[in-house]
Structure of Glycosyl transferase family 1:
Amino acid sequence: MKGRLKILMTADTIGGVWTYSMDLCKALQDYDVEVHLVTMGGLLNEEQNTQVEQLGNVHLYESSYKLEWMQNPWEDVEKARQWVQSVHDRVMPNLIHFNNYGQINGRWNCPVITVFHSCVQTWWQAIKSEEAPPEWERYKELVEKALRLSDVVVAPTVAMLQQAESIYGGFASAEAIYNGRNLKVCGSLRKEPYILSAGRVWDEAKNIKLLSNIASELEWPVYIAGQNESPDGETYTPAKVRFLGHMPQDDLQHCMERASIFVMPAKYEPFGLAVLEAANAGCALALSNIDTLREIWGDAAVYFNPFDEISAKAIIQNLIADEELRHKMTAKAVIRAKDFTAAAMADKYMQLYQKLVHEDYKELTNQNV
């Protein structure tokens, strides 16, 4: 049967998976792909609704069901599974693209891919250097089942895929597809002497506290796009750090275009969309020395130990003091960022989709070529 390729895709509305989903859906318009987007985790905000409305190829199915990693999620996870099954039965897609794990145990009449964006077990290993505690065992079993039931498991980096395999074992088929962004080309940038980072101060994975702890010893001020208030209401106000709170994408882009250095001190970062955005905006990159960031950025960044404040301070201060090095690293980062476009990401996903669905769809190509 010939016709438009129809995909059922799940997404959450909370973090980077939403950005990834929007960029992928937009890029898939060039292949005339119809996406039935099923969302969980919380209702869309105004900005997210606007993003969806601008995509002519997306049909939205919205819910506020809890995600599998949230507190006491299991009743919602089962309700969401039944709901996704009902959407599937109405839509009859050619392929299912899961961006979470809780709904895979269904009766599907088409191939299934699951994207391993992250999980509690890999987070715990990276942050705590140990296995997640027993209360996460049910979650672990759910993730393992989801990955094993998938026709293909995708991860945003080879390093992330290897971490998944080390915990959950081998998969029927697996590959890495790098994330990409729809980013405008920055013109001539007038950089200012300040450091920018992004993340919530209470997020152990982003490790923002390392940067804020050394900020008073750095020559330049530090700005952080993120909240400085923890979920329990505690406010963190370190010296020489200005927290900018949650920022709309355009405002964050403007800050990145002015910042000279972008620092990502993460202990756990499966890909790092904010780093990509900063590189595209002409920031020199100072990153934590973890496998995923090394894989993506290679020699286009300088690196420090995310568990060592002395190491981080020395590397960042050297980038501040050495203007020639800073300009060199900026140029490398801008060039490297060009490899991670939404178009390139969509092309890789289309190749995968075409392997899995009926032969008729192999003739689908980018309509703009």
